[in-house]
Design a protein that fits this description.
- The chain is of the alpha+beta class and 117 residues long.
- It folds into two domains: 26 residues; 84 residues, Nuclear Transport Factor 2, Chain: A (Roll).
- It is built from two helices and five strands.
- Strands 1-2-3-4-5 form a five-stranded antiparallel β-sheet.
- The structure holds 2-acetamido-2-deoxy-beta-D-glucopyranose (NAG) (2 copies).
Amino acid sequence: MPPKSLSLLVVVCSILLASASTEASIDGWQTISNLTDPKVVEIAEFAVKQHNMQVNDMLRLVSVIKGETQIVNGVNYKLVISATDALAKMTESNYRVVVWDKPWTKERNLTSFEKIA
Ligand SMILES: *[C@@H]1O[C@H](CO)[C@@H](O)[C@H](O)[C@H]1NC(C)=O
Ligand SMILES: *[C@@H]1O[C@H](CO)[C@@H](O)[C@H](O)[C@H]1NC(C)=O
């Protein structure tokens, strides 16, 4: 291999490596510092509402306990919430929910909703 193409290969490789590491940090989850942020509460309310509609449940949001966000063609919210269950004598439980939000197209989806044992 002539030296010129070897150095080109090195350049291409380092560009690939650089973009791979940038992607890794973009893909990373970031802890939400303000759990009373209206946007975070709105996402939690949405998750509870969607869940109630999907399975005819009667949960009511109490609070957001913790959360993380991830930028992916919009924002993924992974939250731990506390909710009371009107169909179970208002017992309070924690749930892990994932909501995908794309504000500029007004798309928002509940990806998962599960009770934490
Ligand atoms: C969190 O957000 C709420 C609503 O925007 C605000 O009132 C409150 O001061 C914020 N708390 C912190 C610690 O930034
Ligand atoms: C999100 O939800 C909307 C309406 O509920 C639906 O049309 C859309 O296909 C969903 N998108 C994804 C990625 O699930």
